[in-house]
Amino acid sequence: MAGIVDTLRESGASIPSLPSFSGAGMQKLVIYVGVGLLLAIAGAIAVYFLVQMFKWNKTFVLFKKVGNDWQIAQTDKGMFQRVGTAGDYWAKWKNLKRTCSKPRKQKRKNFRRK
């Protein structure tokens, strides 16, 4: 019982053969795949930090009352998140791990720019 390959050879058809693999060829392949993986991992890390930079894009200044005067207690990174479908927002702080309603009152003096 003749196989398909034997039938093709008898008819004079050209059958491509598999390339031969050598140690040097496999070494190149492993190096290319390894370098590709390293570049992909480095790119993924860079994209992660870039997304985090754009995600936490607001700076909140937190005040506390000392005596009769308000003083800056802390600055924190944060973002505004939409809550529900009614158009409400809340402020989410990164380091304090808290959320509060969107700030509306001004607690700091306006500094004139020269």
Descriptive report:
There is one protein chain. The chain is an alpha+beta fold and 114 residues long. It has two domains: 22-55; 56-101, no CATH class. The protein has two helices and four strands. It has helices at 4-10, 23-55; strands at 58-66, 69-83, 88-93, 99-101. The chain has a four-stranded antiparallel sheet, with no helix packed on it. It is elongated. The model has no long low-confidence stretch (mean pLDDT 80).
List the helices and strands in order: HHEEEE
Total strands: the figure is 4
Main sheet strand line-up: 1-2-3-4
* Gap between N and C termini: 96 Å
What is the helix fraction of residues, given as a range?
A: 25-40%
Q: How many domains is the backbone divided into? A: 2
Biggest sheet statistics: 4 strands, antiparallel
**Poorly predicted residue ranges:** none
What is the radius of gyration?
A: 32 Å
Shape: elongated
Number of helices: 2
Strand content: 25-35%
Structural class: alpha+beta
What is the subunit organization of this protein?
Answer: single chain
Structure keywords:
elongated, alpha+beta, 114 residues, 2 domains, 4-stranded antiparallel β-sheet
Blueprint of the fold:
Layout: H1 4-10, H2 23-55, E1 58-66, E2 69-83, E3 88-93, E4 99-101
Antiparallel strand pairs: 1-2, 2-3, 3-4
Nutshell version of this structure?
The chain is an alpha+beta fold and 114 residues long. The chain has two domains: 34 residues; 46 residues, no CATH class.
